Amino acid sequence: IFNFEGGCYAKTINLSEETEPDIYRAIRTDAMLENVKLVEDKDGILIPDYFDVSKTQNGRVSYPIFHIDDYHEPQMAGHPNNIIFLTCDAFGVLPPVSKLSPGQAMYHFISGYTAKVAGTERGITEPVPNFSACFGAAFLTLHPTRYAELLQDKMQKHGANAWLVNTGWSGGAYGTGERMSIKTTRRCIDAILDGSAAETDYVKDDAFGFDIPVALDGVDSHLLNPRNAWEDKGAYDATAKKLAGMFVKNFEKYDGPITQHGPRVD
Q1: Coil/strand/helix, residue 239
Q2: H-helix or E-strand containing 132?
Q3: How many CB atoms neighbour CB 129 within 10 A?
Q4: Of 53, 72, 182, 195, which residue is most buried, by most CB within 10 angstroms?
């Protein structure tokens, strides 16, 4: 694993020290803000107002990596023990974290599902489902299945686990449910990295077939299985079937053995 960016390009909408302490404290000399409104404080000094989105929700900050405490200075490491796919599910169907088999990792890597949210592209005012092969279709030079095969080979060679982490909605779709809290997402990541997520008990998701942890330290067990977080279970089942169908439809262009690792639509 290596990182050659030397920093981070982060969103600043509704940024506060309480919710995002690392990013908030990284905004100092040598960082650059864009699309952020400045207001005068009581002393007449201009300060950023991260909650004012009257012009755009796409406020950003670029900051160097050394603004983060305890950053990994070599910017390089060995082979990973865990591979994490981040998705933002606007339907509120995917769990906050799920464990993928090697075949499922290939399937979800090729699918590249997420939602475009407000502030990422011009004209996007609410989440729009999006499938982008390998989470970056525009940058691929080979067929997506080739990259998926490489992923599987390296996972098997180095014994890496694959996980799908959803930072999107829970308890309902966009407009009804609530966005996953950063605290919940961080707890899921912590559980992956400290190994506890791999050692817990699981239940299998009926629609997608991946494994959902029954319990994780610091995560509301009600959220782990997304169906439990919906008041209207029938609405959840219908929405899950709808999203599963979108996966299947998108994957028609990749007809082959990897298809068997995708969701089932009756």
Answers
A1: helix
A2: none
A3: 17
A4: 53
Which DSSP letter does residue 55 get? S
What is the full DSSP assignment across 163-220?
EEEE-SEESSSTTTSEEPPHHHHHHHHHHHHTSHHHHS-EEE-TTT--EEES--TTS-
Question: Which residues 6+ apart lie within 8 Å of 70 measured at CB?
Answer: none
